[in-house]
Design a protein that fits this description.
The protein is mainly α and 330 residues long. It has 13 helices and no strands.
Amino acid sequence: MSHVRPLSRPRLAGTLLLLALCALAAVAASLCLGSTSYRPWQLWSAGPEAQLARDVVLELRLPRTLAALAVGGLLALAGALQQTLLRNPLADPYVLGTSGGASVGALSAVLAGAGLAGVNLAAAGGALASILIVFLLAGRDHSSSQARLLLTGVALASFCGSLSSLLLSIAPDGLLRGMVFWLLGDLASAGWQLALPALLLLLALVWPFARELNLLGLGRQPAHALGAQTQRLQWLLYFVAAVATAVAVTTAGMIGFVGLIVPHALRLVIGQDQRLLLPACALGGGTVLLAADVAARTVLAPQQLPVGVITALVGVPIFLWLLAQRRSPA
């Protein structure tokens, strides 16, 4: 993860424009497809059927679409930052237990009767605590693979999964169904009002440090020798990754592998320059999650599947393939 290809302004603009067009195509599909499909020109027609179509699209599908774009972007951004921090393409909020920590915090707050702000704060605290635990327990691993750190994250993710199961087992019946469906990852009632501004703010916060992130990709000691303030940069990455994961989890529940697949795939195509990779992940993650949500709504229509099920079904084989690729050089 050390080679950075030269980045020109035309390449930066062209790549982001292409990703934006892909995102627009996914938005169009999300607005038009579902248990009932509409053609775009139907929305501008007159009559009660056209009015019904506009109501469905504007009041149901558009908020869900914006939420999917924001949550996917947040997860991919968090994954890209964690992969840079660990210099390991297998890192992502789901694998390292960050999503699990956020879900434990959020479920605990729900059981305690907290409001939305309390749930969000508890989720952020859980995500930040899980990141700190992983790095405190495995921070002495300075090997090139950092296998101990990754295994610590996997163990913590399993522990958080057990805690979530315990919380579900003691939850009252009135909360249980909603908590289980939320835990599977669901965009049906997700709101975009917090997630979309959070994505834009976090991207604006971390993007000015893209050059230093490129140096961090060389390793901590080389980055420090080249002038990067690695300690400050690591804490910034902890904070941004934790907040991004917490907002994503409180918005749509546990959705895995978007933070793993999207940064890795984009890195293979566009290179490792963080000035391009970070905004590309924000766009690409949203597009991928939106495509998964369209599939969740249409595969067994009119029944809707949790979008987390779709991402897991696609993500697990890709994760195993990545794991095999990491092992093959030995």
